[in-house]
Every structure is written in C-alpha cells, then in structure tokens.
Amino acid sequence: MPDPQPPQGSPFLSPRQSRRDAEPDPEAQRRAIRTTRLFGLSLLLVVALTLLQPPWPVPVATAVLAGASVALGVVGLVRIRLHRVRGALTVAVLAGLLVAGFMAMATSAQVLLWREYQAYGECLESAITQQARDACQARLERSLEERMDQMMVDPARS
Asked: Residue 3 above 50 pLDDT?
C-alpha cells in the first residue's frame, strides 16, 4: 500500500509544513534565548534608571533604551516562536513586552514634561511639612494641565 504522506522535502509540502516537521535547531534556539536574555537585561536597566530618577540627559537615553527593549522583545518573541523554544519563556517575554511598552510610554512622557517634573522635584526638596508637599503636588497638577492644554489643539478654537 503506498504511503499517503509525500516524502520529506517533497515539492508537494509547503516550506512551512516541512519546517514544522523538522527538528528544532539547538544553535538557533540558543540564539533565540540569547536575544531574550538581552531583552531582559535591557528592561532591567530601563526600570533601574527610571527608579533612580537621574538628572536631565539620562531620561532621554532611558526613553531610547526603553524603545530598544521593545524592539528586542519583539525580535526575541519571534525567534523563540520560530525556533520552538519550550517552556514559559514565551509568557515571560510577553509580560516583559507589556512592561517595556509601559516604560517606553512613561519615560517618553517624562522627557516631554521634564520642566514640570524638575520643578516638582525642586519643590519637594524644600518642602518640610505635609502641607508643603500637598502644595507641590497641586502645583505639579496645575502645571501639567497647562502644558497639556498647550500641547493639545482645541478644534473649537481653530
């Protein structure tokens, strides 16, 4: 009785089917894991730099690094799916991508609104009482609202 399945490498199989049936390449899997490891390290660096609240030029680099982390995460996710790396790595990379995306947006907003946050930090440094801290918070909220009004175009005024 003839074999109903065409032989491996047959012109009747699509490249996707033959790739799916082939054994995963261990070297390609190691490269995929290396990419995701680099993604994790870059994400940790972004989180650390954000928590440290460094002086002015560093948040720009942090925003760029956060964008690079998102790109590395996407590349890593594609590679681990393509080379069929098993385990919880896919879930971990997806969770890391969510964090990286949030950090990219947050650090970009911090760069855009740097003057307001710098004034807030200076205000907090001189604030001794809780009432003074509350006044700093209120001033920050007012300055952020004013800045957002400047950045947004009101269609009714146009």
From this structure: yes
Query: Measured between alpha carbons, how far is 128 from 150 in angstroms, rounded to an integer?
Result: 32
Instruction: Assess whether 82 and 140 both reside in one domain.
Output: no
| C-alpha R_g of the chain | 25
Please say whether the beta carbons of 43 and 100 come within 8 A: yes
H helix or E strand, kind and range, residue 131: helix 130-151
Which of 1, 87, 106 shows the shortest CA–CA distance to 43? 106
The phi and psi torsions of 145 (rounded to 5 degrees) equal: -65, -45
Q: CA 93: distance to chain centroid?
A: 10
pTM to 2 decimal places: 0.66
CA distance 96 to 78: 14
Helical packing angle, 114-126 and 130-151, nearest 10°: 170
CB 115 within 8 A of CB 81: no
- Domain identity same for 41 and 79: yes
Q: Which of 120, 128, 7, 106 is nearest to 50 (CA)?
A: 106
